[in-house]
Write a structure and sequence with these properties.
Order of helices and strands: HHHHHHHHHHHHHHHHHHHHH
Structural class: mainly alpha
Distance between the termini: 25 Å
Number of helices: 21
Helix content: over 70%
Largest sheet: none
Length: 476
């Protein structure tokens, strides 16, 4: 294929993508995309899940976040290279369809949709848990109310959605930075109830940096990876960004410092002020830290912030599910009714169906209020990591074709190229092995084959009824 042919093919793809995305409003500006990217990874996994991780791994959880964060950066740069090649809404399933095959696109689209439905359940579960800090009300009731509120919020225009997410994220970022500064003040000035005992030696003098051994640290990786799920959400916003080829690379390049500050930095401060032995599973380490400092009002404020974080993540989930269902429908791999948009560019029907399924979370909270979070986190982790696996596979195949001159070069190349993606795939494989060894996380691996079988049967039925959906024909 000649260079001219490559350019013509690519231009044709972009035109087709533009036509396919007609109806979406490119209303998300630079500051909104930046805050969605920053806030997307700040949620339940950090504010609630870190408590369980600290109790299992002690201070070594910091190292687990740092290493996993490096892998996440490589995944995001791989996604960034693909986005600059072709910025489209529903990017994961589109790239899977192009570089792996129609069935891979089908599986990826529906699995990522399921991931956000399940994640919505985890976030509303966390929000219901936080409510018990103030009032003794049933978790299922709080979950029900929050689901209805967030569904209503997602009926607005994408511009208002972006604005809401901007301020949600601003609250989370301000709270974490404030907490880090307070902890730094306690360490240097010695104020509050924790001032006399606060010391960075807590990172190694309570049984060592690896108090339960390296094996226990490795076992926390599935919880750590769950904390980073949603960083790829910025790829879903590509079809509604005002200037994707400028905004998206800037947002992706914030990954290293936000991980360094919000995860590594925050945990170093917290575990220096309060010994890791003071933390328990199911209790927010942020709230617990302020309680130990004797700052009761601080704990209440932080609890409000983490409540906001959970609701923000669930809100983002409702946003992405509607877009993913529409992408599937536009490719003939989902019901045509999901293609319809409101005048404000919102996929109303897809969002409504997704919100209805999130109501399952209310039942989960009613039946198993104590174990709900653990179960749904496990399944969300394996389904969310599938998107990362697909991104890395697609990046490897894209880079090979680009190097051969079969596709145009991306303007935002990932560092390390193919080998970085291969290494990241190996790391994800190790995490899956760790999940298999964890009795709580193993349930997700039991569910995965059942989901895969359901998808295979559904695809065969779809292929029989609509052969065009089983070929890489661009959306019309």
């Amino acid at each position: 294929m000649t260079s001219a042919q490559v350019g013509t093919q690519h231009d044709g793809q972009e035109a087709a993508d533009s036509a396919a995305g007609e109806g979406y409003h490119r209303a998300l500006g630079a500051r909104q995309i930046q805050m969605i990217a920053i806030g997307g990874a700040i949620g339940t996994g950090l504010f609630l899940g870190a408590g369980k991780g600290i109790s299992k791994a002690g201070p070594s959880l910091i190292l687990a976040y740092a290493i996993a964060g490096l892998v996440i950066f490589l995944i995001m740069r791989a996604l960034g290279e693909l986005l600059m090649y072709r910025p489209v809404s529903g990017s994961f399933s589109e790239y899977a369809r192009e570089f792996i095959g129609p069935f891979a696109g089908f599986v990826t689209g529906w699995t990522y949709w399921l991931f956000w439905v399940v994640t919505g359940i985890t976030e509303v579960t966390a929000a219901a848990t936080y409510m018990t800090y103030w009032w003794n009300i049933p978790q299922w009731l709080s979950a029900l109310v929050f689901t209805f509120i967030l569904y209503g919020a997602n009926l607005i225009s994408v511009k208002l959605f972006g604005e809401l997410e901007f301020w949600f994220s601003m609250v989370k970022v301000t709270a974490i930075v404030g907490m880090i500064l307070i902890c730094a003040g306690i360490l240097t000035l010695g104020f509050s109830d924790a001032g006399d005992t606060a010391s960075m030696t807590h990172l190694w003098d309570q049984g060592g940096f690896f108090p339960h051994g390296i094996g226990s640290t490795l076992m926390t990786l599935q919880m750590v990876m769950f904390a980073f799920l949603a960083v790829e959400l910025v790829g879903v916003t590509a079809g509604e960004s005002k200037d994707p080829k400028t905004v998206l690379p800037k947002a992706i390049n914030t990954v290293p410092w936000r991980i360094a500050v919000f995860y590594v930095g925050a945990l170093i401060m917290i575990l220096s002020v309060v010994p890791w032995t003071e933390f328990q599973p199911g209790v927010s380490p942020f709230v617990r830290s302020f309680e130990k400092m004797g700052l009761g009002i601080g704990a209440a404020i932080v609890n409000f912030v983490v409540l906001t974080a959970a609701l923000s993540s669930c809100n983002s989930g409702m946003y992405s599910t509607g877009r993913m269902l529409r992408d599937l429908a536009l490719n003939g791999q989902g019901p045509a009714v999901f293609t319809k948009l409101t005048r404000s560019g919102t996929p109303l029907i897809g969002t409504t169906v997704s919100a209805a399924l999130m109501m399952v979370g209310v039942w989960v909270n009613y039946e198993w209020p104590g174990d709900a979070f653990t179960y749904v986190v496990s399944f969300a982790t394996i389904s969310g990591m599938w998107a990362w696996i697909v991104i890395l596979f697609c990046h490897i195949r894209y880079r090979r074709k680009a190097d051969q001159g079969l596709l145009p070069e991306s303007t935002f190349k990932a560092p390390g190229g193919i080998w970085a993606s291969v290494a990241s795939l190996c790391f994800i494989g190790m995490v899956i092995v760790m999940m298999a060894l964890d009795k709580d996380a193993r349930i997700s691996l039991y569910c995965a084959p059942l989901w895969a079988l359901l998808l295979l049967v559904s695809y065969l039925v779809l292929k029989a009824r609509n052969p065009e959906a089983a070929s890489f024909a661009k959306r019309s």
